[in-house]
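Re-run requested by the PI after the first attempt was lost when the workstation crashed. Everything re-entered from the original request form. Ligand of interest: zinc ion.
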Amino acid sequence: MTESSSERPSREEAERAVRTLLLWAGDDPDREGLRETPARVVRSYEEFFAGYDVDPVELLARSFEETEGYDEMVVLRDIRLESYCEHHMVPIIGRAHVAYLPRGRVVGISKLARVIEIYAKRLQIQEKLTAQIANTIEDVLKPLGVAVVLEASHQCMTTRGVHMPGVSMVTSRMLGAFRDNDSTRREFLAMIQAPRAPFEG
Ligand SMILES: [Zn+2]
């Protein structure tokens, strides 16, 4: 039987697939410690890949607020990033920094963080994730500029393959004023590179 790639298998089928991987790894899926593992893995996958069920464009489009004349840069830095490498299905863990220059309207900061989360909770490569976040903010908010910088370490590189713990990958996408205007870009980069004083949020 051939399965169409767009057909979503049942939970039971997904659990059976995990059981197959346990057997393939050389373990006994019927021993006590592993008996609940297929169900747990599938529940974890629901969290890891929750981003497929949400439309970030729709989320952002519903949440404009007037700026009362605020036209300076808005920067969110050090947003925890948890994504999953589409080549190995292992975590990509890091930080995201996002900025935009409003043109008449702003969006709640939790909504911006959600856009990052929605794209991150999918199978990704970091370059595509960076572009998707920037492009969505650009398309929906139509600001004067958008900047996105992601710094992350990929477990497919740290725990397997070349085994290089401590290596992080940095990607960025600068649009509008952040691309065209040196001083705007420098202001953003200085903000995200500034030393952090410890504080309680
Ligand atoms: Zn990988």
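Saved to the shared folder this time. The chain has a mean pLDDT of 92.
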